[in-house]
Amino acid sequence: MENAQTYKEKSASTFNKQAANYDSTYCGRHAQMLYSHVMDTMGRYEFQNVLDVGCGTGNVLAGVLKKWNVSAAGIDLSDNMLDIAKKRIGEKADLRKGDSENLPWESNMFDMVICTDSFHHYPNPEAVLSEMKRVVKPEGKIIIADPWLSAPFRQIANLFMPLCKDGDVKIYSCNDLRKLLQGSRLNLKSWEKSGKNAFIAVIGICPSGIVGV
Ligand SMILES: C[S@@+](CC[C@H](N)C(=O)[O-])C[C@H]1O[C@@H](n2cnc3c(N)ncnc32)[C@H](O)[C@@H]1O
Fold it and tell me: What is the pLDDT confidence band of residue 118, given thresholds at 50, 70 and 90?
């Protein structure tokens, strides 16, 4: 496996280049197919504020702010993606440049953390989940939407990921996600497919003392 920094550099460079035309790229179109399902899933829960990890050009946050009277924050590794998000959303969201492994917010701040089509870029997914858990309130929810492939296509794709120039790390099965959560005091509340090539998972926090999925 390449080192974590290499994956992050590839992701930042890819999305810096793609930013201006992101909505018409393969990645952009894949993400767009998820937006309404992500928002429907968010709508199942009460929330006053939300953090979008890997927010890209701010498409989801723009939709959230249009639909709900909530406060919003976002973080992304790519300057150019974030610049577009800032133009799109302006002062209405707290948008910061940074790495999902080190979220620059205080603990227990958010009712909801969302992550659309970004999780498969993370070389240290446990570290990201741990940060998401830190910033979300005990009753809050983490919603991850990401690419999905059936076996054996997933295994084959995962073999070639280190060669990919876009900084993709891994396509997760439901079981892979469960394994990542094991022992983390995070609890997989639901996992559903979204279209043919994606999933949406809702993750909650286990009450103190109860560990498992
Ligand atoms: C396919 S885009 C998805 C953008 C947006 N969530 C959407 O749905 O349109 C993936 C995004 O994840 C960001 N990203 C990748 N690795 C990251 C990391 N370690 N920390 C923060 N953002 C990251 C990329 O810069 C890119 O903007």
Answer: very high
